[in-house]
Design a protein that fits this description.
The chain is of the alpha/beta class. It folds into two domains: 79 residues, Arc Repressor Mutant, subunit A, CATH 1.10.10.10; 131 residues, Roll (CBS-domain), CATH 3.10.580.10. It is built from nine helices and eight strands. α2 crosses α4 and α3 packs across α4.
Length: 221
Amino acid sequence: MCNKAMVVSEMEFSIRQNKIIEIVKLNEPIKSEDIANQLGINRATIRPDLKILTMTGILKAKRKVGYQYTGKSILHMIGSYIKTINVMDIQSQPTTVSEKATIYEGIITMFTKNAGTIYVVDGDFLSGIVSRKDFMKSMIGREDINKLPIPIIMTRMPNIIYLDEQESVYDAAKKAMKYEVESLPIVRKVTNNKGEQRLKLIGKVSRTNITRYVVNLGDDD
């Protein structure tokens, strides 16, 4: 699997590496000695450059044929890379309240934990999701939010958008954009002795998690 250093190198090609890319584009397939001749240097000098360009997917090498340009953009390669990263590698702890909590208790939890989304649980299992917007709607024209149970305002299955623990960061970003949600629960599907399938809450991925991860790809400190 590629590491962070490789991804950084993909995004910061040297002047010589960019010249090599242009030469291959115009002359593909082309052998390394011919590339070196056009640059006016020896083949050994460009060997590390060719290795980087093939490892990052910009160039493709065929034995006895030479180098070819793949046509893949940097963004395409980054997208391919994050498809290999599991959501569990970037997940964070979800903020939860019990099904027995009141709307008022949910609001207090949201603000004390500085959370954008509250997950309603029955033990270890996900029952529903409540957003800031849900809480705001619940407060309009009501004076008894300290008595009303939080399940009356939560989103329930089958309307909960979630992530399986095997999904990738790319899957998470795609779902967050498609459904315009701030965060997604990560669940493990469990079947009880009655044959019922339940969703065990094991983490969450927010837009902040995803953004932080992508930004860190460019941080070589």
